[in-house]
Every structure is written in structure tokens, then in C-alpha cells.
Automatic annotation (TrEMBL):
NCBIfam families: PolPhglucPhase (NF045942). The keyword tRNA processing does not apply. InterPro entries: ATPase_NBD (IPR043129), ROK (IPR000600). This is Polyphosphate glucokinase. The lineage of its organism: Bacteria, Bacillati, Actinomycetota, Actinomycetes, Mycobacteriales. The keyword Transferase applies. CDD domains: ASKHA_NBD_ROK_PPGK. It holds the Pfam family ROK. Keywords: Kinase, Transferase. GO terms for molecular function: kinase activity. Belongs to the ROK (NagC/XylR) family.
């Protein structure tokens, strides 16, 4: 795909995950991908420089030279990573915008980039392109994967950098007990895992009182197998954008100047 044009309402998002770095051109009118998503394995160790090299490679492959939104699985404040639960610890304190701006420069001109938390990006995408419930009132979106990511939204506006996956529960981080990676690792049935998630959700709901909980991540594709097992007293609905959410939200963030 040739260079961006803001007039065409097209953006580009990159989602940095524990196993893969994924990017795609996004139609910002509809929230759909234009063309294929490109995925490259996350380097090991996933240091900032090694990851930036892969993102540069990904953009080279697609030919995109415009602004880029990039998600990381970390708290991002003033474009600087503050935590690193599921990525290399050397991210902590990294000025991510500076890293990518320079590494992704086009013909020596620094690239316009926006970096944000992966779950926050998913929340933004869901609020823009998902169901009406996603932009109505107080919404908690969770991404269930290697960890548990969270995004809090009020009428579609994000409160950034919530880290509910790290709520101590019962004696460890909630994500170490109830993420979908834990379900796989401990070979839990959907019902067994849903019981755990139900207890975690009950705690979130007790404290935050959202009107809707949206569940994303790969496991939400099988939501019919476990959402009915939940007893928590609030509507729990699967995310609509599925695995598009991070990429799409990143593209929206750079377009709309959302810089946590
Ligand atoms: C990180 C969050 C991230 C989530 C999902 C957690 O371990 O602390 O920042 O959103 O995983 O990737």
C-alpha cells in the first residue's frame, strides 16, 4: 500500500504482543482493515531496539510511510513506558515515541507516532466501531490473553492506564490466576476458568460499577462457551472487533491525537 493520506481517512496501527507484532492499514471510517494484516514474530529478548527493528521491517514490507499508532503491553505516560509485566524489563523508562520516531524515520524525516497501552487501544476501537453499549455510560473492557488488560471508558472517552489485571486476587495478580493463558497452562475447562474469572469480575464490578463489561482477546471468540457461566450482575458481552481492536485503536489514537 502506498503512502498515507489523511484525506483518505486511512491510518496504520501496530500491535506489539508477547508472541507477535502485527500491523495493518485501517479504514478509519469503518474500522476495517484495508488489505491483509502483517505479522512478524516478536524477537527474543523483546528489547525496545529489537522490537523497533521489527516494526521498521513490518512497515517496510507494507510500504506505509505515514503516521503510525503503536500499542505496547505496558503503562504509557507521556509516551514513556512505566511498567513491563509481559515484555522485557528494559522497556521501563523508555521514551517510546522517541524510539519509534527515529527508528521509523522516512528519508531521514522522523515519523509521527503515538504509543499507547494495548488494552486502551482496544477500548478506543471498541468505543468507535463496536456496539452502542461500548460507548454508552461506564464501560469496562478486558482483554483476556497472556495477561488481563483493561480499559475504562465513560461515554467512549478513555481513562488511560488502568491495570486491573494486577489487582491482587486472591493472593496474586488477577492475571496470574484468571487470564486465558492460565486457562491453557492449567488445562482448565471453560467452566472451571469461568468460575475464576467470575470471581475476579465480581471484584471489579464491586469497586467500579460499570454498566457493561466487554470481554476481548482470542478467548472471546468462544464466548458462548463461558460467558453463560458467569453470574456477575452486569451485562458481559464479547468485543466486536476481536483481534482487530489493538491495531485499529492504535490507528485511531494517532489520527485523533490521543496521547496518554
Ligand atoms: C500489562 C498491561 C497490558 C496487559 C495485556 C498486563 O500484564 O500490565 O499493561 O495491557 O497485560 O497485554
Amino acid at each position: 500500500m502506498a503512502t498515507d493520506s489523511r484525506a483518505q481517512d486511512v491510518g496504520f496501527g501496530v500491535d506489539i504482543g508477547g508472541s507477535g507484532i502485527k500491523g495493518a492499514t485501517v479504514d478509519l471510517d469503518t474500522g476495517d482493515f484495508i488489505g491483509e494484516r502483517t505479522k512478524i514474530l516478536t524477537p527474543r529478548p523483546a528489547t525496545p531496539d529489537a522490537v523497533a527493528d521489527v516494526v521498521a521491517d513490518l512497515l517496510d514490507r507494507t510500504g506505509w510511510t505515514g503516521p503510525v499508532g503503536i500499542t505496547v503491553p505496558a503503562v504509557v505516560q507521556d509516551q514513556t513506558a512505566r511498567t513491563a509485566a509481559n515484555i522485557d524489563h528494559s522497556w521501563i523508562g523508555t521514551d517510546c515515541a522517541e524510539l519509534f520516531r527515529t527508528r521509523l524515520a522516512v528519508d531521514g524525516v522522523p515519523r509521527e507516532v503515538t504509543v499507547l497501552n494495548d488494552a486502551d487501544a482496544a477500548g478506543i476501537a471498541e468505543a468507535r466501531y463496536g456496539s452502542d453499549a461500548a460507548r454508552s455510560g461506564a464501560v469496562l473492557l478486558l482483554t483476556l490473553g497472556t495477561g488481563i488488560g483493561s480499559a475504562l471508558l465513560v461515554n467512549g472517552v478513555l481513562y488511560p492506564n488502568t491495570e486491573l489485571g494486577h489487582l491482587r486476587f486472591p493472593a496474586m495478580d488477577a492475571e496470574k490466576w484468571a487470564s486465558s493463558a492460565v486457562k491453557d497452562r492449567e488445562d482448565l475447562t471453560y467452566r472451571e476458568w469461568a468460575r475464576r474469572l467470575d470471581l475476579v469480575l465480581a471484584e471489579y464490578v464491586r469497586i467500579l460499577n460499570p454498566q457493561t463489561v466487554i470481554v476481548g482477546g482470542g478467548v472471546s471468540r468462544k464466548a458462548d462457551k463461558w460467558v453463560p457461566e458467569l453470574t456477575v450482575d452486569v451485562p458481559v458481552v464479547p468485543a466486536e472487533l476481536r483481534n482487530r481492536a489493538g491495531i485499529v485503536g492504535a490507528a485511531v489514537a494517532v489520527r485523533e491525537g490521543i496521547r496518554p
